[in-house]
Fold these 4 entries.
Entry 1:
Amino acid sequence: MLLAAIAVLGVCRAFLAASIGLTDDEAYYRLWALAPAWSYLDHPPMTGWMIAAGRWVAGDNPLGIRLATVLTSLLGPIVLWRFAHILFGPAVARRAVWMVLAMPLMAAGGVIITPDTPSVLCWGLAAWALAELQVSRNAHWWLAVGVFAGCGLLSKYTNLFMGAGILLWLTWGAGNPRWLRSWQLWAGGAIAILLSLPVLLWNAQHEWASFAKQFGRVGRDQGWTFTYLAELIAAFGGLASPLIAVLATVGLVHALASAVRRREPRHTLLMAGLLPLLGYFLTHSLHGRVQANWLAPLYPAFAICAAIAALLDTRLGLRRIATWAVPLAFVGSAVIYAHALHPLRMAPYSKDPSAQLHGWAHFAAELDAVRAAHGACWMATSSYATTGQLAFALKGRVPVMQLDEPLRYVHLPPLDARTRSCPALYVELERRHDSSLLHAQFAGVSDLGTRERRYGDVPLARYVVLLLASPQL
């Protein structure tokens, strides 16, 4: 039954992945895959590598770009089932997988490819290897932990907290410090470091720009406030689904109490993998916004906590809540899928995240006609989102280049001098338009009005269109 559900959902997600347009971030990550590199400004390279492999197998289309996500959505639940089964038995494992399949965040994550795609999988694989280690006491599992942790470091910097969780487990779990005398532990650590070398080398060659960009957020203090914490809690309730979120909170408290009071091995391992990242983002939310997807690696652990709570013998009515938790979550996920495929209603200039999926093919064709009419040889932008979307829609027929943030594109061949000297059509969202940037780089800047990207008759976004000439090289 469970395997059938995973397979059916996999087919549904493959259909959706092939049928909807790319998000802005996906279109940008596709540019990574055009010339795979050791790493990139925003994130480690695994997402770009996965997209490159998917494009090689299925072509330069939405399904090819997202193929790795669809395959990951088939493997991830099996890894979760094995981890939960080893530690908590078949009943918890079965419920946990149903819950993770139903969660809206994981449903969206089963279609859209982001750095969370490999990050969540590698986090789960490393946790599974630790569970096998704990049960078997076979030190060779440390080598597998090192491989999966290293691949996680190639996926997203968030996976550094998996290392923090391992250290916490080594010091917290009863009898675990003895592993420090095992050569396999140190070999596993060496494997993880070796696998992460591409990221280190790229940063060393580019003045540690990626580290500065991502870790620089830690020092951006906006003053203490509970606003962002409230946002984070509300987002968790929506992305996990409200009833699953309630169960997960109860189960987390129960598991944490068991780990602290009795140092119960199963709960200790579960909490060690969850607490460092959760504690960091809860603290961060007291002075800065935490994007909901940043906690994505923890949602499988939240599903296990929810499954534990559903089986508790209490007077809180948890089993009645558990009866409706999964169906309600599936309904929420189905609504998200249906809205992404065919929005029931889209308000003009909507801030709906799904608006970025629509209207790009027609919009790009319209812009290309304007470009040709004015003798421009290439298109210019000033944001990665517009760059990525236009580049995908035009499929190499016309060069598209962002005029600022060149470090995002150092892996791509530069625009040749002949094309660069030719007039360019500048296209950018009105709110992102920076006239000072254009006048600093071009002597001729001519206003061609505005154009709208539309979904049917509904305008989604308005863009400034300018003709740029005489670059000031």
Note: The mean pLDDT is 93.
Entry 2:
Amino acid sequence: MGLLNLLLKDPLGFIIIAAPLLYSIIFHELAHGWVAYRMGDPTAKILGRLSLNPLKHLDPMGTMMLFLFGFGWAKPVPVNFNQLRDKRKGMILVSAAGIITNMILAFCALFLYRLLSPSPSGIAGQLLYYFARINIILAAFNLIPLPPLDGSKILMGFASSSVRNFLSRFERYGLFIIIGLLYLGVLEPVIRFFEWLILSLIRVLLP
């Protein structure tokens, strides 16, 4: 269900889901830009993308898709991998930064949610629950090794030049391929598998 439907039917529910979703995406993108900056690429900083201001990160088409269909995207933080001190290592770390950030945020939200027990059913509890859930989904989705998702760039950092070239050729069509695979339900078991892996790791740290 798109966010527009939710806004019309349940304004409070819209806020409880939209606010965690918005800032989960912002922190994800910030992490990419910050790690790139620390590794020698100031592009995101120069363009003002190292900011918590939502207007710096919203993509008009991605936002419209989110409101109408429940699937959308933010403007990717620009990274010039050629400026990184170690291009291969930088590609891995910059790409993994957003995923790791989402996992850390999910862990923190679940930790705070547990502190509210045995009565986590208020608005604070719902916000924490959805914040954790959204961050787990974002991390799992971005682990998929298809361009332009982060998982593909992590794979490229480890792969041979022929694999990198193969993945790079598909990047311009990647978003359309991903939307098609989501529509067909092909990616759902992959996302569920990555969600299980992330939750298993969190359970180890938060028994």
Note: The chain has nine helices and no strands.
Entry 3:
Amino acid sequence: MDQHLEIISRLWTEERVDGEYPPYHLRGAVLYPKPVQKPRPPLLIGGYVDAVLQRAARKGDGWLTYYYTAESFQRSWKKVTDYAEAAGRNPAELSSTNQLPICIGPRAKIEAPMKHWLQTEWDYASWSESTMDSAIMGTVEECVEQLEVHLATGIDRIIFVPYKYEKEQVEAVAHEIIPRLKRRAA
């Protein structure tokens, strides 16, 4: 993975790339179009094990995970920032992202279908802290309260995973949840 990160970074930033990356032998390799972001797009490293957290701290621009509770996110993010410091990097230059499932509606009505969706269409590594317990569920106000706990960890970005990607859920996140979070942050 480290080798692949170096290759893609070089292809994004150099006109032509030569190099020995067994099993790859790059001779005048090119990649076009070049990214708009300079010097390259941010590299968010996703995963759970310590080796991945170390890679995010040493080689990436941040860490991306999914379905972590606020508490488990905070524990793992602390590992990332500690690894960054140990590698001589400034942890403040790294970004943190958590993807969270969300379902907006009366909890008595939505909880069972949401849990069924999370149990049947998503997987969670048993050795990771990724869990369906991270789900944001309830009325708009209840969801905002649950999300504030995540924001209090200092997280940089939350990616919402609306229930079954239903249009109504996407619109509720866009029109009800995000504006309330922005108002509270102001």
Note: The first strand starts at residue 17 and ends at 21.
Entry 4:
Amino acid sequence: MTPVYTVLLVEGRKPAAEYLAPVLNDQGYNVVAARTRRDALAKVQEAHPAVIVLDSLSLRFSCRRFCDTLRDSALEIPVLMLLPDGEKIDRSVGAHAYLHYPFSTKQLTNQVADLLTAILQIGDVVFNVEQCSVIYSKHKRHLTPKEARLLEVFMRHPSQVLTRAFLMKQVWDTDYLGDTRTLDVHVHWVRKAIEEDHASPVYLRTTRGKGYRFEVPEKE
């Protein structure tokens, strides 16, 4: 099962032909729209978006303040900011990527896809691949390189049962299965980072006699 990523599109009122939701919907994303800062922050909590697109040209609130609020709340969600033609990029605002008008459909969707590559999200688990950090329930944890690689492998294969042999090869680059205690210990550590109760895991589940799988929670 391939997870359907949610994109929060924050844009003000403009001609119907200029709205960006249909473009993102056509790429298979679940698009949630907001027009005000308050509504956008509420949708962040409700919809758990994997990427946020801020159309600064049409908004009547401070994008800097919005990004500051995300950071202060430990919400590590990548932000793509859309800028007017010719406006200088100010990276201190806090967005992760920028795109100037006018842009093509392909440029927009490529930027969103690039951000999804750097940030993986399933349910309430948000994993920054580049920083080796994971956020769950607003708590941020830094992982060791091996823990990070293990979590990345799981999150790139959601709902699939991954055998011990596959995991040992992907994370430790070995075919040796004489002792897989190292794998079990690392699974335990990853569970402590992403589970409410690591003794009763919701995400990282054991399939007895086969291996492990990263469960995609059903939407309520």
Note: The radius of gyration is 19 Å.
